[in-house]
Every structure is written in C-alpha cells, then in structure tokens.
Amino acid sequence: MGASNSSAHETEQKKRNIFVWKIDGFTSLLEQGEGSTTTPFNMHGIRWYLSMNPTDRKTGDTSSEKHLSLFVSVHVSPDYMLETKFKYFIQACKYGRHAEREVSHTYMVSSLECGVACMLPLETVKDPSAGYLVHDTIVVGVELQKFAKVPCNGVERISCVGKKKSSSLSYNWCFEDFLELNKPSVTSEPFQIAGYTWRLKLKPQGGSNKEYVSLYLVLDRSASRLQPSSGLMVDVVFSINKSQSDGYNKQTFRYNFTGSNTAWGFRNFISREEFKDPANGYLIKGRCTFNASITIFGSTNDHASD
C-alpha cells in the first residue's frame, strides 16, 4: 500500500511539474563550503538543473550572514527562448510547511540561470525548531507554474511578459550580434500596453556623444490615436541583462507622454566602453538583452482600446 501511495504521489508531482530534491548529508556540504547541482530533470520536454548554494552571501558583502540560495539553469538554443514562472520552496518537513518564493524569468542564450539568491538564512535552516533540517537531511524543490517556448529568428528577438490590455509589461529586446549593427538607430517591433502601441528605440553609438549607447521608449501616436493634448503618465525601468548574477545596469524615469511628446529615454544610457567590456557581462560574444519594465498609471483622457 505504501509503495502504491508513493507512486501516485510522484505521478501527481509530474502532472503539476514539480521537482523535489532530497539532500542527505547537508552538514558535509557546509564543511566543504560547496554547493550542489542535480542531474537533469524533464519538464515540458526541456532538461532543467536545480542548484543549491548553502553558504551564499549578499552581493559585495563578504561579512554578511550566510544564506541558502536556489537556482534553475537550462541549456537553450539560439532558436528559441523559454518564458517561465517557477516557485522555489524549502520544506519544513517537521511541520508540513514550506518557505516559498516565485520568480518569473525568460531563459535565453544570454541568460541561462535564474533563481532566488539568499532565500533563507543558514542559521534558520540549521535551527532545529524551524524544522527544515531533519536528521541532516533537507528537502528543496521547484514547481514550474508557467511555461512558453518562443521561437527566435534573425539578429534580434523579443519577449513580453504581460497581457495586451494590462497597464504594465516587461519587454525583452535581444540581439544576437550587437556589434554588427551598422545603422545610426534601430527600432523594436511594436508592442501593446493598455491598448496603446509602443516601441523601443536604440542608438548603438549614441547621439551627439558617440561614446554612449542611447535608449528610448516611443509612443506610436498614430496607432494609439492619442490626441496632442492628451497625456499618459508612465513609469519606465530600462536595464541590461548581465551574464553574472550580481545585478543589472538600470535607469529609471517617469514621464508624461502626450500627442506632441511621444519619446523619452536616456541619451547616455551606458558608456560603450563599459558596455563592451567582457568583465561586466553585458555583451557576451556579441549577444545582449535590453529590458524595459513599463507601467502606465495615469491618463488625462478617456482613451478606450479596442
């Protein structure tokens, strides 16, 4: 009866795209000062890897408290991206509850790993009263809650996280060979937020100052039918993905887009020297990804989308 119940439980986990990792000998991992990675597991026909670092620290602070971190990695072909939402968990087996975090991420050639850094303090994990570590065994895992495989073609590719008529959206603009761009400026494919049409505009060699990369958000006035006197208050966060896990180059602005003021951004978004330096992790073998997180939170007219 016990074996039958176990088999049924494993089948249910596969249906829900849950991977559970039971790690024995947790203390020995701490003594070695090393993390660990699973063998590949299959979800949606993709081979994934779960890694754990039990002695992670907050970036740049070697004196900070040690934490347990979890990351999922995957090998991705340049022909597609994987848009995902994972729930990471650490089981408190003693009490039947979890520590949980949800993370959305688009896996691509330039971004093969994502997860939760410093998810739980190591002292909390080791505390017997917390119930996470039982008989030197800890149980962690992930649940793949959302998944989409997006084909990519050509020099650039895009992915959007958000609904067409939502008031917010995260837009990834990926370049396979940024150094081959030979135009003064390039414009992304159009995308929709709350019924309005937008594009990103990139100047690889900046404007008057050729030492910088320029990046702008542009409202397509004709497609959106926005009148010159109408306005949209928009929050925008521009960033560039880094191959390392220690953050992003990030710039933020708030701007009132109107029918006569349809573009705003940064003439000096990032210096070309900093951007091209391999040590910074922005441009890897010509590949890079720009991200725009956009939220429309105010309008001075009653624009209605179709």
TrEMBL record:
MATH domain location: 16-144, 168-294
CDD domains: MATH
Classification via PANTHER family: ANKYRIN REPEAT-CONTAINING PROTEIN-RELATED, TRAF-LIKE FAMILY PROTEIN
Stated name of the protein: TRAF-like family protein
